[in-house]
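Field reference: sequence -> structure
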Amino acid sequence: MKKKAFITGIAGQDGSYLSELLLEKDYEVYGIVRRNSITEHQRNRLTHLDNKIELSYGDLIDKSSLDNVLKKIKPDEIYNLGAQSHVRVSFEIPSFTFQTNALGVFNILESMREFSPKAKFYQASSSEMFGRSVDEDGCQRETTKFEPTSPYGCAKVFGYNLTKHYRKAYKMFAVNGILFNHESKRRGSNFVTTKVVKTAVRIKNKLENELVLGNLDSSRDWGHSSDYVNAMHLIISQDLPVDYVVSTGETRTVRDLCNYVFLKLDLDLKKYLKTSEKFMRPEELPYLKGDSSKIRNELKWSPKYSFEDLIDEMINFWQENYNNENLNY
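Structure field:
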């Protein structure tokens, strides 16, 4: 009998890659999407999976919608990837961020406890929870304390701790994957990696004349989404619930990213790059670098994509699609 997986945030970058992975493993895949007035763009990342997955409307803020789905499908695995996922935007809409990223975790755990208590639960936790906290060796790992620097990070800490609480209090299989930044050609255009790549390609094709960013010296540990959803499935597939950091262990600045992309496109970065206070955070998170030795040693996970592989894929995608109004993702 096929396993059943339920995914919140299924229409996002990670949700689409995870759906593909689970279908390859012969799962039945279910997910919820929030109702959007622009339906044409709501499921772009999933159109190639039409008739292979089952979608319904729902929202982490609306517990009744979660109850209805879990009562109906009785999933074996639940992946909570749904979130207000943009860190800088969380400063502008902190209340909505807390409702979705914190109380939303409570809603789905409660729904699971009531209607699918034997299911396995995966919570998409974030490196943003570490914030200004870094161990002496310059890394962040499972034992590093949390000092978040944004409403997004604070809400994610709530969800992380709530997941551990339900694991202990109700003996539920509930795990956290603490994922560092991960990107792909399916990443939204308002995230810095896609913004840099897409704008550079448009400059190359004389459709833009500048790239405007915030803090160029922020360091991030960037991996590929498809590698990281493999880690999610490994984490939830174990016999015992254990939390893991998932990262490449390499860090680069936003400036490094820009230099690589513009050099690849044979453009002079100095001619086009500008900074603006508009894109600065009220409290900056200057540095992230993950130590993923635990998952590498215990679960034998390792990333297949290098940073260069990731960015090259994104550049190629936008070069092919920059002038296409009906993008695949």
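Note: The mean pLDDT is 94.
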